[in-house]
Amino acid sequence: MRKAEAVWLVEVAMVMLVPYKLLRERFPILSDRSGSPEVREQLFAIVKLLLASVPVDETWYRKQYPDVGAAIEAGRYESAQRHFIEHGYFEERKPSRLSVDEAWYLAANDDVREGLEEGDIESGEEHFNLYGYNEGRLPTRFPDPTSLLASSG
């Protein structure tokens, strides 16, 4: 792997988080209210600590989620990053726009390509942003972060 490819992979991987929906499916304790509240609280604290290292595009996030922009203006949050850490990730919001490799995405997802051909969607990028991210689909070719979850447990 060339150095430029390695840098690109790190940049993409830093913002391609496993969607919270998939974490809840893999680790039921995150949504099971019958378990220990102390354990749940500790798990959420760990997740939030990890989220603090995720770069959030302040301008994009506020534009994409106008309710957050209004909440920041009203003083309820100090920044888009703070909102993302406290609530946004858990509400299945993305921290920034993710680039979609259109050709790769359509080749890797037959159903999306068919939807494009039938006029159900305008592009692979549109599909990814509306549905693909929360379904755990990747926007481009790089290691699947959900594959790491398969070995845990």
Shape: globular
Span between N and C termini? 31 Å
Residue windows where pLDDT falls under 50 for at least 5 positions: 1-14
Helix/strand/pairing category: mainly alpha
User: Largest sheet, if any?
Assistant: none
**Strand tally, please?**
0
H-E string: HHHHHHHHHH
Total helices: the number is 10
**Rg value:** 17 Å
Q: What quaternary form is this?
A: single chain
Content of β-strand: under 5%
The domain count comes to: 2
Question: How confident overall, as mean pLDDT?
Answer: 83
Q: Topology of this protein?
A:
Layout: H1 3-15, H2 20-26, H3 37-51, H4 58-64, H5 66-73, H6 80-88, H7 102-108, H8 110-117, H9 124-135, H10 147-150
Helix pairs in contact: 4-5, 7-8
What would you note in describing this structure?
With 153 residues, the protein is mainly α. It has two domains: 75 residues, no CATH class; 41 residues, no CATH class. Helix 4 packs across helix 5 and helix 7 crosses helix 8.
